Amino acid sequence: MINRRLNLLFVFIFLASALFAQKTIQKPIKSLNEAELPQGTGTIAIVNVLLIDGNGGQAISNASVLVKGNKIIAAGPSKSILVPQGTEIIQGKGMSLLPGLIDSHFHIDGAEDLPSTFLKNGITSLRDPGLWIEVYDQVRKSSKQNPRLFLSGPHLDGSPPAYPNDAYVVRDEAEAIRQVNEVVDQGSTVIKIYFRTPPGLIKAITDVAHKRGIPVTGHLEITEAKHAIEAGLDGIEHITSFGLSLTPKREAEKYRQSMLADNNYRKQGRYEAWAAIDLNSAAADSLTRFLVKKRTFVSPTLAIFEYQPGKGAIDSIKLKGFDQMMKLTSKLQKGGVNIVVGSHGMVPYAEKGWAYQREMELFVESGMSNSAVIHAATMVNARFFRIEKELGSIEIGKLADMILVRGNPLEDIKVMRNIERVMINGVFVK
What we know:
Layout: H1 2-25, E1 43-51, E2 60-68, E3 71-77, E4 88-91, E5 95-99, E6 101-103, H2 114-120, E7 123-128, H3 137-141, E8 148-151, E9 155-157, E10 167-169, H4 173-186, E11 191-193, H5 199-211, E12 216-218, H6 225-230, E13 235-237, H7 243-246, H8 249-261, H9 266-275, H10 282-294, E14 297-299, H11 316-334, E15 338-339, H12 355-366, H13 370-385, E16 402-406, E17 419-424, E18 427-428
Parallel strand pairs: 1-4, 1-5, 6-7, 7-8, 9-10, 11-12, 12-13, 13-14, 14-15
Antiparallel strand pairs: 1-2, 2-3, 5-16, 16-17, 17-18
Helix pairs in contact: 4-5, 8-9, 9-11, 11-12
């Protein structure tokens, strides 16, 4: 009897410890500039609007949403919403109301005004996965309004690093653990590993990051994605990170060695590798199932790889390689993988400030439905950031980050360029 009671006690302690650990991992994550955001104080009603709430369900026509302070206090059919006297009324006829867009992969690229430009274009939260946090000091000190800033600090890379200015070189576990703790103490909301990070260090990095309640994402390219995810990686940056997973061993090793010798090899080499990939293979199906099982988030950043034929000779390899990247993105999403939207900041075929919308358009061109793309841009991204309890959808109790667009993006995704109004924290900033 005593042994039985002791066994039950050990089981209870184990379960309690596991529950505590889970709660520690899932602690709330806040943007670095949370205290600097405008704060709503009044009551605002947006009425007679098409409500696309971000959860991926059916849109509600002739809907209304009521905001008090910085929170949503009512949302649904207009006939069910009682608007108090003295409320500021915003007419939404002919427009759609969506949650503020969330950008999983933004780079400032030396343009300090880019975050504020993105905010005016509907992106109310963004994540920069790989830049010294202090680079954003001037952005935060400027008089311009900015989105919620979820920053990572420099990405972790091996020696020699691919991008020295944006990297922290890790040579062993001690350096990796120290850097993770330092940037988390500084306000980091995610850790990003870069493709020259020694694979043996990935588990050490993810272990300490998860203990601090921070997710880890990675640009892999020359590390097998499945191995990195098994080691604890939560997200994958760039669709090209799956190249080794889908390429026969001999060719994959040839690509890996070429990249180790010269980072620039990938500029054309990645298209050559992707042009040869068989997306109907057992490897592609296995990868899809694996990512679903592991609940991995994938930010394809298609727009940075986009190739459009110009007036000169057509690069058929680039054309085929990029087409394969698009097709895999759609295949993964339709297979149940968590696909999210990341802009990369500035891209070849979009004007400054519109890279995010171009990424959404490419998702649709790849075969994803408009509804799925909007869901990826809002609620799925909120889950990737671990902010889904406060943002990502238009629901009672959530923070009032919302956008009004002219037209219906469920019918035409290009409508997402028709940004009429932008609200962050209950305040219209456009």
